[in-house]
Design brief:
The chain is α/β, with parallel strands linked by helices and 370 residues long. It folds into two domains: 183 residues, Rossmann fold, CATH 3.40.50; 173 residues, Rossmann fold (3-Layer(aba) Sandwich). 43% of the residues lie in helices and 14% in strands. It has a six-stranded parallel β-sheet, sandwiched between helices. α1 crosses α13 and α7 crosses α11. The longest helix has 22 residues. It starts with 6 loop residues before the first strand and ends with a helix. This is Glycosyltransferase family 4 protein. It is an enzyme of class 2 (transferase). One of its GO terms (molecular function) is glycosyltransferase activity.
């Protein structure tokens, strides 16, 4: 007799896997669902409700979100009837984006509650965020398991939870689409892939522009950026005084376009202001590119100095320029660093490795071994 696979209810309150706007959050949610399926689970996206509270003083938004969440709870419970899933899996709950659905259903149906990439920050205890963060903290405390993608997140949860149930899961990507495209690097080709948004993204683009200005005279370089967003005009303005024949704005690219771009690169440059980790770093390295970035936030989780990663102290624009110039002037060293980076991604950050890790951890949870 064939045993049915364990069933997982999946929910991503910040951005659903089927959200129309691409982002790292959407990609990670999609990858998690794929990894869970590869691990032998039946995964269902149970809700597309977006829970995002961008204003700490907007109590009306929180009230409306709670009402919508209660409606979703009723709808989901009715759809389950007497046959609930085996586990609730929530991706990326935090003070701006709490899970207001899963905890109630988990208690009602006696389901293990598991989170991935949850975070807590005492600095954000203001207005309605203080209330939502307290709720997230309580649910993380009760969770059967909290999966942490970075050491920083694990330390943050460990500091704010009593006897936290934590486990590490390395950030990961699907390497196969990148492996299908043979590298054919263009001399001096600097590439990046990033959304164009105000804040940290714009700050990283500003640092790139400054680094390009700092390259030694006579350096053979050109820069290609894939990405789009509301700050596109502001991003392009940062580069207005640079030679425009060397700069190429490609807009948002489909996956095959991203693979082609990376295959043509000499190196990948993205400072990484405020990056939680950055899946694009993994994609670039999987394509055989050395990455130049700042040693900041979660970037060292995916860009490894012991495997070709080129990390510069945060804020050191001159250091970015020196490192880029050094790699451009020595293609053999750049290629060797790219090969080392690719091997590190294959070994530490593959979809297969994530599926194996998730399968072990979640079956332990379901069988009460955690």
């Amino acid at each position: 007799m064939t045993q049915n696979p364990p069933r997982i209810a999946f929910y991503a309150p910040l951005k659903s896997p089927d959200h129309p706007v691409p982002s790292g959050d959407r990609l990670m949610a999609r990858l998690l669902m794929r990894a869970l399926a590869m691990a032998g689970f039946e995964v269902t996206l149970v809700s597309g409700l977006r829970a995002y509270l961008g204003d700490p003083d907007d109590s009306a938004a929180l009230a409306a979100l709670r009402q919508a969440a209660e409606a979703e709870q009723a709808r989901i419970a009715a759809s389950w009837g007497d046959i609930p899933p085996d586990l609730w899996f929530c991706y990326h709950p935090y003070y701006k984006s709490p899970d207001l659905i899963g905890p109630t259903l988990s208690r009602r149906f006696s389901l293990p509650y598991v989170t991935c990439e949850a975070s807590l920050s005492r600095r954000r205890n203001q207005g309605i965020w203080a209330e939502t963060q307290a709720g997230v903290q309580a649910e993380l405390q009760r969770a059967a398991l909290n999966l942490c993608l970075t050491a920083r997140d694990a330390a943050g949860l460990g500091a704010m939870l009593d006897q936290p149930r934590l486990a590490r899961l390395a950030p990961f990507i699907d390497i196969e689409p990148l492996a299908r495209v043979a590298p054919r690097p263009d001399t001096g080709h600097i590439v990046t892939i990033a959304m164009m948004r105000p804040g940290d993204k714009l700050a990283s683009y500003a640092a790139i522009a400054a680094a390009l200005r700092g390259l030694p005279a006579g350096t053979d370089w050109r820069f290609s950026a894939a990405g789009d967003g509301p700050a596109r005009a502001a991003v392009q303005a940062l580069f207005a005084d640079l030679p425009q024949d060397r700069i190429h704005w490609l807009g948002a690219l489909p996956p095959e376009g991203v693979a082609q771009l990376l295959a043509s690169g000499t190196l990948y440059l993205w400072p990484g202001c405020g990056e939680a980790y950055g899946l694009a770093y993994l994609e670039a390295q999987a394509a055989g590119l050395p990455v130049v970035a700042w040693q900041v936030a979660g970037v060292p989780e995916v860009v490894h100095p012991d495997a070709g990663g080129q990390l510069v102290p945060e804020g050191d624009v001159a250091g970015l320029a020196r490192t880029v110039a050094s790699l451009l002037s020595d293609p053999a060293t750049a290629a060797a660093a790219g090969r080392a980076a690719r091997q590190a991604v294959l070994a530490r950050h593959s979809l297969d490795a994530a599926a194996e890790r998730l399968g072990t951890l979640l079956r332990d949870v379901m069988e009460g071994r955690t």
